[in-house]
Every structure is written in structure tokens, then in C-alpha cells.
Design brief:
The protein has eight helices and nine strands. It is an alpha+beta fold and about 210 residues long. Helix 2 packs across helix 4. The longest helix is centred in the first third of the chain and has 14 residues, at about 25-40.
Length: about 210
């Protein structure tokens, strides 16, 4: 009998499993904040308005190759480093879960590199059962560059993750980060209301400032 080989990745099955991997909304927020810390951010801002939720950092940002690397599934991202991101694929699955299969955006800039916009059409990815070549990378528009720079003045590097409104995520943010100064809104105390994961135990040892 002739020897044959087999073995494959079923994209549709993998995508369908993303929502069943134990990524609760608190874990998703943890993963996104961890990614900001791993990018050497000094400050992380979480902004909520009537249109979206934005997680803004002043870290090193990404060039185009870095974005492509980030959105490649199953790379051994954290095999040898000391990154705080616990799950490796969290940078993809976290916005997928939070966005509830709609869209999320990433705006990023590394020093001496392009201002880049990344569109993640999670709804199309889920309905088509296809992830390969679905993430869109393009230069930011002039208005997007202006917003990006205003968010982190005087720095002009870092990453912004834009997510659709999600009431559960807003609740998690409010329950975990309590403003102690009504003027600065510095969120340097963490409540004990969240039984899923105590974020103070994870992020309390870092000097990164988280503000709202």
C-alpha cells in the first residue's frame, strides 16, 4: 500500500472555536492592557464615548512588518520572552470577542515609520470561515493622524485599539478601575468586585499609568 500523508488546519473550525476558548470580557481586557505594557508604554488611556471604546498607549508602536507579525496566528510570540500577555493569540481573539463579530480597528505608529490603520472585519471572518488575508492594513488618513497625535501629545508613537461599544466591557472597566482623583481620573486603585481575575495582582507591579 502506498504511504500517504495528512494533516491540515481547518480555518473555519478554528475561527468557530475562538469564542469557546475561555476568553471572558475581563480576560480580553487583561490581554489588551498586557499588550500595551509589553510595548513599553508609560501611559495607557481608556476612553469611552457614545461611539466606541479606545485603548490608547504611548508605547513603541508597530511598523508594517510588526502589524503583519501581530496578526499571524500561532506564532511562538512569547516562547522565550517575559511578556505579560498570557495567551499569545489574545491580540486577535480579544478584539474578536469584545467586538461580538463586528469590526475593530488598530491605529499604530513606530518612530520614523508610517502611520498605519488596521481594519479587522471580524463579522466577515466569522461568516466566511476565513482568516487568511482578511486583515486590512493601510496608511491613516489626515484626520486619523491628527486624532492619533492629539491622543498622545507630545508623543507621536504608540498604538490605539478602537472597539465597538460593549456594555459588559464598560462595566468591567468601571468595576476594576476606580478614579481616586476627580480631576486627573487616575485609575490607580482596583476594586475587589471582579471575581474572574483580580487585575490588581496582574498590573500592580508595573509603573505604567492607566487613566480614563
Amino acid at each position: 500500500m502506498t504511504t500517504t500523508t495528512t494533516g491540515d488546519f481547518n480555518e473555519s473550525g478554528i475561527i468557530a472555536a475562538w469564542g469557546r476558548q475561555g476568553f471572558s470580557i475581563p480576560k480580553c481586557l487583561m490581554e489588551l492592557i498586557s499588550n500595551c505594557i509589553d510595548a513599553d508604554s508609560n501611559q495607557i488611556k481608556i476612553c469611552v464615548d457614545d461611539k466606541c471604546i479606545r485603548i490608547i498607549d504611548d508605547g513603541i508602536g508597530m511598523h508594517r512588518n510588526g502589524v503583519e507579525y501581530m496578526f499571524t496566528m500561532f506564532r511562538e510570540n512569547h516562547k522565550y520572552d517575559k511578556s505579560t500577555g498570557a495567551f499569545g493569540v489574545g491580540g486577535k481573539i480579544a478584539p474578536f470577542v469584545i467586538s461580538n463579530k463586528t469590526k475593530s480597528y488598530v491605529f499604530t505608529k513606530m518612530k520614523d515609520n508610517q502611520y498605519l490603520k488596521v481594519v479587522c472585519p471580524w463579522g466577515e471572518i466569522a461568516s466566511n470561515g476565513k482568516y487568511t488575508n482578511m486583515i486590512q492594513i493601510s496608511p491613516m488618513t489626515e484626520d486619523e493622524i491628527k486624532t492619533f497625535c492629539n491622543e498622545r501629545h507630545p508623543n507621536v508613537h504608540g498604538t490605539t485599539i478602537e472597539l465597538p461599544l460593549n456594555n459588559e466591557l464598560i462595566k468591567v472597566i468601571r468595576e476594576n478601575f476606580i478614579p481616586v482623583d476627580c480631576d486627573t481620573k487616575v485609575l490607580d486603585k482596583v476594586s475587589n468586585k471582579l471575581s474572574d481575575i483580580p487585575m490588581c495582582m496582574v498590573f500592580g507591579k508595573f509603573s505604567t499609568s492607566i487613566t480614563c
